[in-house]
Amino acid sequence: MKKTLLITSIVVAFFCFSCEDEPIDFEVEVTNPTNPTDPTDPTDPTDPTDPTNPTTNTLSSYTYDVTSNLPILGELITNTDFNITGGVVTSLDIELILGGVTTPAFGVYTRDGSGRIVRFNATASGTPSETTTINYTGDNITEIVYEDLADPTENHTYNFAYSGTMVTRTTVGSDERIEYTFNSNSQLISVESFTGTTSTQLETLTYANGNCVSATTTGTNPGSYTLSYDSFTNPSKAVFNDQFLFNMFNIDYEDEVANSLAVFHSTNNWTGVQDTGQNVTFDITYDANNNITTRSGTFDLGDGFLFTLNEAFQY
Description:
Layout: H1 3-14, H2 54-57, E1 61-70, E2 74-85, E3 88-98, E4 101-111, E5 117-124, E6 127-137, E7 140-148, E8 156-163, E9 166-171, E10 176-182, E11 188-195, E12 198-208, E13 211-219, E14 223-233, H3 236-239, H4 244-249, H5 258-264, E15 268-274, E16 279-281, E17 283-286, E18 292-302, E19 305-314
Antiparallel strand pairs: 1-2, 1-19, 2-3, 3-4, 4-5, 5-6, 6-7, 7-8, 8-9, 9-10, 10-11, 11-12, 12-13, 13-14, 14-15, 15-16, 17-18, 18-19
C-alpha cells in the first residue's frame, strides 16, 4: 500500500473543506441533499428499491481521529469532529497535537439559497487562517479561489472547463492541470495530472455496487490496491453528499482520491484495504439497526510510517 493512501486520509480529515456520485450531466447537476424527492431515501432519492430510513440511519455527529507516527515529525494527532445540521456537514472542529503542543482549528461552510457550498472559512487558534470561495455557472463549479491569510504565496485559483464526460482543471499562473473523467453513471473513473503536455500521474478507479473497489496509479506514486465493504448503508455518504464535486475538484496536484471515495462517498461501509504489501481489516461495531458505530484500524507502511484510525458515528 502506498504511503500516500493514508497520508491522503489525514489530509482529508484535517482539510475537509472541501459523495455516491451525484448525477453529472455536464452541465454538472449538484443535488441539494436537504430537499430529497423521496424523504425515505436521502442517499439516493430517485431509487425506490434502495430505501434508507432517515430516523435510524442519519448521522447526528461524526468523529474522525488519526494518530500518526512519522519520520522526523514524530507523533502527530488530528482529532476532527464534523458538526451536522439539517442532514449536511455545516462545520468542523479540529485539534492538532504535535510535539505536545495543541492547536485548535475551526472550519465553517457557507451555502447559498440553493444549498450549494459557496465558501469555506477556517480559523487556527482563534485567528482567521484561510478562505476558499466556490463560484458556479448554473450548477457547474467553474472556479475555486483559495486565500491563505497568513501566507499569500500559497494563494491559488482553479478554473474548470467541461467537455462531455471530462472536466479539466487548470491553475492560474501554472502549467499544471488535472483531467477528471466520469462514466455514464456519473462515477469518477480516472484522475490524471499533467505538467504542460506531460502526464505525471494517472489514478484509475473501478466500482461495484456503488463502491470504489480498486484503484491503480501510474506515474509519480505507482501502485494498486483493492478496497472491501460490508453490505450496510454508509451514513457518511448522505451528509457529505453535497461536497462530492468540491472534494474531488479541490484536491492538491497529484493527490489520490480512492480513499476519500471509500470513507465519505461509498454506498456501503469501508471495511478494509489490500495490496501486495499488507491486508488491513478494520475493527467495526454496529448497533441493533446495523448502523456502523465505530471503525478503527492500524496501518504500518514501513519506513517509520504508522497510522491509527478511529472513527465514531452517532445517529
